[in-house]
Amino acid sequence: MQLTRLALAASIAGSGQSRHIAVLGGGISGLATAHFVRRRLADRTGTSGASDPIRITLIDKAPRLGGWIQSDVDRATGVLLEAGPRTLRPKGLPGALTLAMIHDLGLADQVVTVPMSSPSAKVRQMLFQDRVERLPVSLGEVIKTSRDANSPMAGIVPAAVREVFVPRRPSQSGAQGRKDEDETIAAFLSRRFSPALVNNLVSGIVHGIYAGNPHQLSVRATFPSLWNAERDHRSVVLGVLKGAMSAMSPADAAALAELVQSRGPKFADLWAGASKASIYSVRGGLEAIVGGLEAALMDHVEFNLGSQPTSIRLPTDPARSTIEVTLANGSTIRADHLVSTIPTPSLNSLLSASGSSASPALTHLASTGKRTHPHLLGIIFDSAAVPGLAEPEYTKFTVMMGGHYFSQPGVHVPSVVEAGELALDAVRRHLSIPEWVATPVVVRARLHHECIPQYGVGHVQAVRRARDEVGARRVELVGAWYDGVGVNDCVRSAWEAAQRIAG
Question: Are residues 387 and 405 in the same domain?
Fold first, then answer.
């Protein structure tokens, strides 16, 4: 199947004929795919305008671009409020690809970095047994808190010592063992460390990143470095000591070197500085990146916004037939290639509506999402997160609630008004702020449905099977529902799809 896809991609890039790509979804994944396809073609052929050998139509049911990325400025106060992601991490090939895209858009001078030495890069706190606990930042602090039975780090040092001697699970050892198995985060860490580590520490981390349940999420899909450390080094601790947890693969290292070289010395300097930082953001919020992409693509991509697809018909003969996307207004878009960045359940529904068969693996991808809910997931000190963007006269928090708790029976999902009240109550209670101090100037609440896909056990294998199935029919599966929930993950997924499409 992979050979078929690569051969097809080469024919699109090198045939000299105009080909049509339909992109479903106008979030960062869809926009980045369009950007990297055009960039790839420009690098290969030197075309940049009407003579482009690939025509792109981007379709989104929403009236705006950006998906979950939405930066609002409160008119009364001038305070920037991020409704979605707010910072980016400049690490590895995914981080470099996102920064390269920002550089391509002419936004490099708008990047604001946070150095590793900044308190906001070091201080992490966790709600443990109804009190706020500061997490250790040095080995000495880890050892000290490991001895404290009332700390979320209790017993972590003895557990780490024992972990070195825990054997691989059968599927991870021996030439005859199957290496494509999977297990939950909780099962993996309980087996290698201890159940207490999962309950006291890891569950809070997983809530903050994935809004999910460690007893349900795949360790291989969510924390692949842990899975790979056991597979390659027999132990997570040994993998850490050998530097394997942060090391790039040879393929990623080569791609990163090529990326830096292709963008020239200005990007090389930008990456050299940013890669030493903890995180960064963009002046005006991350939606500035969306605006930059829209402006750069406006003359080369047809944006079909506010258009609800009703069905997708895949070709019965991949070598000849076109893909048909029918919209609610009755019009049909015919394309040679389809890039889907929309939720897997939505894609399955569109394929079923036309009678097109989809890979059974697609239906096995978990679809629970993050929703606002009384259960607290985390509080971000936005005022301190990126000091260079702070509004000094205000203290700003982002409160995250909901996640997998929404699936519990009998749980009430609050309205937007109730969510704002619950968030304010959480800040007052857990940060011990008197009510007279915590009278807010601005409260903005949003309910985000299915914004963080939940990767169940077997996710990696399911995605591989799904791509083999639909890839032969000129469909690319891109974005958070497949390759990671972060912005950098989505950008990398888009970049990889662009390599296959544009050659």
Answer: yes
Tell me which residue of 336, 271, 441, 242 sits closest to 18, measured CA to CA: 336
Write the CATH number for 209: 1.10.3110.10
Tell me, yes or no, whether 461 and 356 share the same domain. yes
- Whether residue 99 is contained in a domain is answered as no
User: What is the rounded distance in angstroms from the CA atom of residue 500 to the CA atom of residue 386?
Assistant: 36
Nearest CA to 142 out of 194, 189, 201 is that of 201
Q: Is residue 450 part of a domain?
A: no
| pLDDT per position as a tens digit, 17-52 | 568 999 999 999 999 999 999 998 887 766 555 456
What is the rounded distance in angstroms from the CA atom of residue 263 to the CA atom of residue 483?
25
CATH number at residue 309: 3.50.50.60
465 and 349 co-located in one domain: yes
Same domain, yes or no, for 237 and 143? Answer: yes
Q: Is the domain of 355 the same as that of 462?
A: yes
Q: Does 464 lie in the same domain as 338?
A: yes
Whole-angstrom distance, CA of residue 491 vs CA of residue 94: 7
Contacts (Cβ under 8 Å, ≥6 apart) of 375: 401, 402, 403, 405
Tell whether 304 and 391 lie within a shared domain. Answer: no
| Strand bridging mode 337-340 / 19-24 | parallel
pLDDT at 407: 65
pLDDT of residue 175: 43
Residue 185: domain span = 121-172+181-242
Strand-pair category, 111-115 with 277-282: antiparallel
Q: What is the DSSP string of 48-90?
A: -STT-SEEEEEEESSSSSBTT--EEE-TTT--EEESS---B--
Q: Which of 170, 138, 174, 172 is nearest to 153 (CA)?
A: 138
CA distance 39 to 310: 31
User: Could you tell me which of 282, 294, 379, 223 has the C-alpha nearest to residue 87?
Assistant: 282
Tell me the β-bridge partners of 217.
456
Residue 86 belongs to some domain of the structure: no
Contact in structure between 502 and 476 (CB atoms under 8 Å): no
Q: For residue 381, tell me if it sits in a domain.
A: yes
DSSP 8-state assignment for residue 113: E
Radius of gyration of the chain (CA): 23
Query: Are 346 and 385 members of one domain?
Result: no
For residue 7, the number of C-alpha atoms closer than 13 Å in the C-beta half-sphere is: 8
The pLDDT, as a whole number, for residue 51 is 59
Q: Are 217 and 454 in contact (CB under 8 A)?
A: yes
Which of 52-61, 127-136, 156-165 has the lowest average pLDDT? 127-136
Angle between helices 28-45 and 487-502 (to 10 degrees): 40
DSSP state at residue 167? P
β-bridge mates for residue 22, sequence order: 57, 338
The per-residue pLDDT for range 379-415, each reduced to its tens digit, is 888 888 888 887 778 888 888 887 777 667 777 777 8
What is the CA 79 to chain-centroid distance, rounded? 26
